[in-house]
Amino acid sequence: MADGLQLDRVCIERDGTRLIEIDRTVAPGEVLTVMGPSGVGKSTLLAFITGTLPAGFSGHGTVRLDGTDITRLPPDRRRVGILFQDDLLFPHLSVGANLAFGLSENVSRAKRREKVQHALDEIGLPSFFDRDPATLSGGQKARVALMRMLLADPRALLLDEAFSGLDAALRAQMRDLVFARATDRRLPVLMVTHDAEDARAAGGAVIELGAA
Amino acid sequence: MATRAHRMSGRVAPSGPSAHAAPPLLAAMPALTLIAMLGPVAAGLAGTLLPALGYLPAAGLTDWSTDAFAALWAWPGLGAATRLSLTTGLFATAGALGIVTLILAGWSGTRSFRLLERLLSPLLSVPHAATAFGLAFLISPSGWLARLTSPWATGWDRPPDLLIVQDPWGLAMTAGLVAKEMPFLLLMALAALGQADAARRMRVARSLGYGRVTGWLKTVFPAVYAQIRLPVYVVLAYSMSVVDVAMILGPSTPPPLSVQIVIWMGDPELQRRLVAAAGALLQLGLVVGALAAWRLGEMAVGRLGCLWAMNGGRGRRDAGLRYAGFAFGTLAALAVLASLACLGLWSVAGFWGYPAPLPDTLDLQSWTRHLPGIAAAGGTTALIALAATLAALVLVTGCLEAEHRSGRAITPRGMFLIYLPLLVPQTAFLPGLQTLLLTLGADTGLLPVIAAHLVFVLPYVFLSLGDPWRAWDGRNATVAAALGTSPAGVLFRIRLPMLLRPILTSAAVAIAVSVGQYLPTLLVGGGRVSTLTTEAVALASGGDRRAIGVWGVAQTAAVFLPFALALALPALIWRHRRGLHG
User: For this UniProt entry, which segments traverse the membrane (chain B) (predicted)?
Assistant: First the structure.
């Protein structure tokens, strides 16, 4: 079986109407961009892959990750990381605790602090462990959210308009950071966006939705 | 078309935010909640029906008969008691709804409105009995208002022989109910306002040349009313059958039907219980009839309203209505506040001759005298309230979490079931519940009382926690799950901590509801469970103003303390977490 994220004849319906049909494989380290105006159900596709399809939608087809069928797995066993437009850092946890939240529970107590600190160093926020996430700038929050997801050691990465909330300069920076990390770890990336600039920067294949 | 394999995987694709099957206990929560909420109501109605038909084995009565109804018809006060129940209920509801409508129509979105809202919101939680006592101390011929204006304005140097409180028409009682129910309806209407697209509708209406009040009534009111219909029904059912307020502010010869039922229930002669049961059924019929009449009234008003909207009248001169609404709202708020102040003043009053505006001396004698009693009753009150609140929170969060995981939103029918315990008059099913417990020999201890309180606490916890629970951003759950967190982990580590503030507010509402319960404590406790409320209401006939002042203040404090904690605790716990201070 092929490595990467395989969408095998995936089809999302709402009340019997087909919203999305897709049959593609995203190889490790590659980016597949799904483009289209808002309202065509791009995010629903990602919800199907994470296992959180809202009521009223039904999904068909099979999602495989590195050859394993994950379609029936509960969301917390899929190891599919996702980033949204909002950082969604948990407001009741400190920055460090947010990162530790992502870390696997098998990492020993002694190692946790070290790994989180290392992650903070990596994104240039070494002294931020005890900070309230609400006091961070937009770019800082986005970086913490990315590191939190990476600490959970995902095998695929979904981006749901992940850069839309950032201004132009930050946006390019953040894109580079995300794509670099994904390539390093050989993660297949599925990006949903309405911005052609995102698609160009990703450099991978592009699917246009809602054109038909 | 898809192959069989695709259909299979399609079917197991989760419809909700999780592919986990809910654990059995969680899946059972909605059923458990319904049983806790409606079980006692159904059992109580059955326990009312049987004695009304002559069947009361506990008293050795097993012959079916209609004697109880015959005795009820023969009671000379029946006509007046029935009329009182209807008029106080209908006028109080219409009055409270009318004032709330005028306030919203004339002022919503303005700075004065926020002021009024701040004045009225805390009044929601003030116990009915305390408000009623305070109001009686305020407006009676020997009350504070008379003292403040005598003798220089009124010429009175002793209390005039006027029946202002406990008047035979129930006007004082109706006024008290209007003041107390208005904050409730206002709060419910405020929640509805957001979904009514009020701001944009008003912009359109205003740009078409409509006056503020007229434009609001024609464009926004129908949408808001559709949302607050059930709360309005609750106010109607409650006002028609309330007991504690009626005992304090209502007439006594004859009293409203609800009070008479309680008097019959307390009669040592067990035969009287049959008459009480018949009266309870009549009360139920009256409330059902009044609700039906109100529904017909709604339809008629709706028809007329459509014609009114089509006639194109702009109502440019409707400013008078605006100020009337503000005046009534302020008056109600000030009346309740002054009532509380009056209670407080009497609780520390030394000698206070008539018509002196203030007591000659202030002391703590009344407090010292009643403190042991208050401590004992306060302990019982707290125990009942905390137990009922905890049970309600577990059940409601369980229901909401089950709803979240199944992805099925609550239906209108479900909403109706939540309101049902508040729509069935207390006097219709609590006597039956007491009779039933008596028959089973289970009429002792706090447990039945806690269960009875839970019936009334549950709906309010549902109503206060439901919206914030559903408004929580579900993507937090997606992110946490993507990080490998189980649904239980998401609930306990993310959702509950983030919702700490609304959960504590809900708990405070629940405690306030429990503390204020008079009839469930009295009847289900068999008269042997003493809380701050039962003790306070028991003082009504004695007329010891200092004692009433002390107990009324204690009752009010028991309600305000939890609200203060609900505000302070999240601020303290999350003091370093700005994202949680909305």
Answer: 21-46, 84-107, 119-139, 169-193, 230-249, 274-294, 323-354, 374-396, 416-440, 446-465, 499-519, 548-574
